[in-house]
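Input/output pair, single chain:
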Amino acid sequence: MKAKATALMLADLGVVKSYSRPHTSNDNPFSEAHFKALKYRPEFPKRFQTIIDARTFCRRFFTWYNEDHHHAGIGLMTPDQIHFRQASAIHTARQTAIDAAFLSTPGRFVRQHPKPPQIPTAVWINPPKKTEPAQA
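Output:
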């Protein structure tokens, strides 16, 4: 039995190769961002002793990532808060707290009335480039 080269087998299956440039995560941007978050956790080990250790670590990591980690890209919300449609209520509560802080100590806010981060309508790692409108 002779094996076919992996590239030929993938071509036969209709899988297209990707030649992404370095630091341009267009293949799997969310997966790549997730891997970076995973590897940069202080408790991430140099090596897992067993597959059970790896699974245990990942279960704890994914729970933290989805339930406790506030993401700048989604208005300092957690993925669970967005997924379970709690973002509007949280945004309103944040604005109420900020308004109270502003009223109690307006001198603390010198430039303008503070606002919480906006709730995004779309989330991108590499947003598409904006095109200029056609001129007639």
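The helical segments are 6-12, 29-39, 51-67, 79-83, 87-104. Residues 87-104 form the longest helix (18 residues).
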